[in-house]
Amino acid sequence: QVQLVESGGGLVQAGGSLRLSCAASGRTNNIYAMAWFRQAPGKEREFVASITWSGGSTSYADSVKGRFTISRDNAKMTVYLQMNSLKPEDTAVYYCKTRSYWGQGTQVTVSS
User: Which whole number is the average pLDDT over 90-105?
Assistant: First the structure.
C-alpha cells in the first residue's frame, strides 16, 4: 500500500499564492506518476495536474495552466503544487493521487 499525506492548504485572498505538498510513503517503488485533483462543493472531482516520477513530464488542466506548477522531490518522495494568482473558483479540497491511492485532501479557500 501507499500512504499519501497532503499539507499546505489554507485561506488566501484572490491573487495570492499557496504551495501544497504531498508526501508518499509505503510501497512507493512502483510509482510512475502522481497527480493533483480538486473537488469544489457540489461539483465532481476534477484533474488539476500530474507529473511522472522519472522524467518529470507534466500535464495541466486548462483552467490552471500558467498559474499552477507541479514538481517533485524524488529523494523526499514528495510532490508539490505551487499555486499562484489564485482565484475564488480555485476554492476546493485538493487531493493527491497515485495509482489507486488517494490522500485525505487539504482545503484551499480563496476569498474575493
Answer: 97
